[in-house]
Amino acid sequence: MIFVSIFFWGWLWGPVGVLLAVPLMTVIQVVLKQIPKLRPVYKVIAR
Fold first, then answer.
1. From CA 13, how far away is CA 11, in angstroms rounded?
2. Which stretches of the chain are DSSP H helices?
3. What are the pLDDT digits (tens) for 13-42?
């Protein structure tokens, strides 16, 4: 999932997106984990 994140953010924002991909993915995972209705999405992403 990290590589998909790097490719997506790199495509969207270029080199800055590549640098920010891992921190952004970490923040997204923390938010998804804290919201009970979105926990299934977290489990898919966290694999």
1. 6
2. 2-13, 15-34, 39-45
3. 999 999 999 999 999 999 999 999 999 999
Give the HSE-up count for residue 6: Cα atoms under 13 Å, Cβ half-sphere: 6
12 to each of 20, 39, 42, how far by Cα in Å?
Answer: 11, 26, 22
Tokens of 28: 């997204």
What is the spatial distance between Cα 47 and Cα 44, in angstroms, rounded to a whole number? Answer: 6
Exposure on the CB side of residue 30, measured as CA atoms within 13 A: 6
pTM for this structure? 0.74
